[in-house]
Amino acid sequence: MNKPPTLTASLIVLAVFSIAFGGCGVWAAISGYTSGMHEMSHSEFMKNWNDLLEGKDDALNDNVYLRWFGPDQEEIRQFRRMMADPIFKENVRMTTEMVSELFQLYETLVPDRTLFLLVNLLLSLMALAGGAAMLNRSDWGRQTEIVFLFLATLVTAYMGFKAIPPLAAFAGRMAEMAPLGGRIDPEVMQNHMKAAWSAICLLFALMHGGIIWYLMRPSVRAIFEKPDTPASTGLPPL
Fold first, then answer.
1. Whole-number mean pLDDT of the chain?
2. pTM for the full model?
3. Can you say how many angstroms the Cα of residue 65 is from the centroid of all Cα atoms in its chain?
4. Rounded distance between C-alpha atoms, residue 197 and residue 94, angstroms
């Protein structure tokens, strides 16, 4: 009787990575929803951020602050001492401007954040289930992985190429904020960002396509096919 084929190292790595990716995605989707970030506007976010940095009492007692620093009063006092340092405060000011730009970029790319979280949760559950089933040599796990990769390629391509104009504009603004000694021409920075991000999008599409092609090869399909039973072959049991 022929011994059934076993999973190759590449399939095991793919399945484990898929499980890890799916688990992180589920956690991120649930955390993003429960934290209320899907409902917070740019102005609300920046008000909370600035109140926090200025050490206002309302911000110090706010749940967002407690989630970041914990209820440890010594940490709060240490944070206030750090904010009294002019150099640290200037670095925080530049960080605040960058955070504001990133949040605006996030709002531009994801106008419906609840739908985005639901799509992320669905794809993550597919990756999690597909990876776990692949480790058990289940063919539906292989098929689920193919569907997940196909949908992930479409979402990545849509979001990736949609992000090119706002990312380029963001890179230009970051170049303008840089110190004079290390400043880069904003237009050059925008062109670099467009080229780099386009290359990343194409790389992800090619990588996903290569994995789909690999999972559809006859030699890989054979690994997940169940061996014929005696009832199906008509042969007597051994």
1. 76
2. 0.68
3. 24
4. 24
